[in-house]
Amino acid sequence: MNRARVAFGATFLATILAAGTALAQTAPEMKQVLAGKKFTPPIKGEALIDFTAPVTKREGANVVTRIQVRNASLSPVPRLTIAETWYDKGGSIVTGGKGMVNGLMQPGDIQTITITTPWKAAMSSNNYNFSHANGTVKPNKVAKIEDPNAPAAPAKK
C-alpha cells in the first residue's frame, strides 16, 4: 500500500514539474490579421438591390436568364441569391433554378447573375425571388446600371 502511494506521489510530482516547464516556454508572437484594414460587417436584415430587366434565352436544353445587379445598401451583402420559378398557363409550378453571387457583394458592386433552368414545353411565365444569407432583399428594377468606376468612353469627333 505504501508503494502505491509513493508511486502515485512521484507520478503526480513529475506531471506538475513537466507542466510547469511547458508553460514556462515562450509562445510565438501573434500578429493581427486585420491590423490597419477597414472591415465592414455584412448586412443583417433587408438589403437594397438594384437590378435590370432579366434577359432570358433558350440555349440548347436549358433556359438561361442573366440579371445584372448592384448593391445599393451601405454594407456588404453576403451570398446574394435569385431563385427563378417557372409556371404553366394554369399557374402550376413547372420547374425552377437558382443563381447566386458567392461571397460578399460590396456596396456599389455590380455583378451579373446567371440562372440556368432545364427547358420544358409547358413553361409559360416566371417569377423571381431575391434573398441573401442574412435576411431579405428589397429589389428595385432600374432601366440601366452604370458603373461609376468604368473608364470614360472617348469623345466623338
Structure in words:
It is a single chain. The model has no long low-confidence stretch (mean pLDDT 86). It contains 1 helix and 10 strands. Strand 2 (55-59) and strand 3 (62-71) form a beta hairpin. The chain has one helix at residues 2-24; strands spanning 47-51, 55-59, 62-71, 77-78, 81-87, 93-100, 104-105, 110-118, 125-132, 135-141. It is elongated and about 95 Å long. Strands 1, 2, 3, 5, 6, 8, 9 and 10 form an 8-stranded mixed β-sheet that branches. Strands 4-7 form a two-stranded antiparallel sheet. With 157 residues, it is mainly β. The protein has a domain at 47-141: Sandwich (Immunoglobulin-like).
Brief summary of the model shown:
Helix content is about 15%, strand content about 40%. It is mainly β and about 160 residues long. The protein has a domain at about 45-140: Immunoglobulins (Immunoglobulin-like, Sandwich).
What is the topology?
Layout: H1 2-24, E1 47-51, E2 55-59, E3 62-71, E4 77-78, E5 81-87, E6 93-100, E7 104-105, E8 110-118, E9 125-132, E10 135-141
Parallel strand pairs: 1-10
Antiparallel strand pairs: 1-3, 2-3, 3-8, 4-7, 5-6, 5-9, 9-10
Key words describing this protein structure:
157 residues, mainly beta, Immunoglobulin-like, 8-stranded mixed sheet, two-stranded antiparallel sheet, 40% strand
Query: Approximately how much beta-strand content do the residues carry?
Result: 35-45%
Looking at CATH, the homologous superfamily of the domain at 47-141 is Immunoglobulins
Shape-level CATH architecture of the domain at 47-141: Sandwich
CATH topology-level name of the domain at 47-141: Immunoglobulin-like
Taking Cα atoms only, what radius of gyration do you get, to the nearest Å? 29 Å
Helix content, binned percent: 10-25%
Note the overall shape: elongated
Question: What class, by secondary structure content?
Answer: mainly beta
Rounded mean pLDDT score: 86
Total of DSSP H or I helical runs spanning 4+ residues: 1
Number of strands: 10
Distance between the termini: 106 Å
Q: What is the element string, with H for helices and E for strands?
A: HEEEEEEEEEE
- Major sheet, described briefly? 8 strands, mixed
Could you list the spans in which at least 5 consecutive residues all have pLDDT below 50? none
